[in-house]
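Researcher: Here's the sequence for the chain we discussed earlier.
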Amino acid sequence: MKVIDLARRLGINSSKVRYYDKIGLLDIERNSNNKYRNFSDLDALKIMHIETLRSFSFNIEQTRQVCSMHDDEVNHQLHKQKEVIELSIQLEQAKLNRLKETLQYIEFIDKKDNCISFFNVPECWMIFSIGVKHDLTINDYKEIQKLAAVFPFSYVALHIPLESIKKDKELKMEIGFGILGKYQYILEENRVNDVIHYPGGNTVQLYIETSNPFKLTQKDIKPLRDYLKDQNRSLDKDLYGRVYMGYQKENKFYFGITIGYKIE
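Model: Thanks. This is the structure I predict for it:
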């Protein structure tokens, strides 16, 4: 059987058959007269076996290894690959959940007239690297790299220090990365100890649409201050939040953000 005929019978491209042969996954006899490959039915079955392994997300080198293993080794390798795929499914489900969270935010903003809401914020960890005055440590940079590498499970976090809330007309904004406790398992290494741990809990959230989060003023957080005042509370602690989504509006780019005040 010629390579083109074999490929058609297997429903694959002939270049794939030639590639498998070239890298040694096949041992094809050649015609002694013209040196053309002469594929047998058994060769076809081997290729189908290779395609089956590849469909389980084995790469070429892993496929080569499995093809040379004894039955007990193959069984062990298949179990390991099962764990890999299961983890991949968990990650994809978590990614879907993160996307749903973003959609819920957008739908909430579209339907709600009041910019104040309540939310039970989950436990999370944050580190801030943009807009900060202090020098970053080596551990800070390591943590930043880890969190930056796991979007969308990490998120863009923001922080307004109480010191700025007390005295500045234009608020000091710090931007960085955060990750919820339920997504800790995605990080291969433990977090460093000097990130900000936010224990979570009941939070009053202020929703803000802004073209520049670094230019927020006291006026922007007035609805939050007024609400707390009505509840006989004062704005007496740092504010933490996140940047949810950016979008064009009236020929300008805006960010949808939340700023939260935790109620003890």
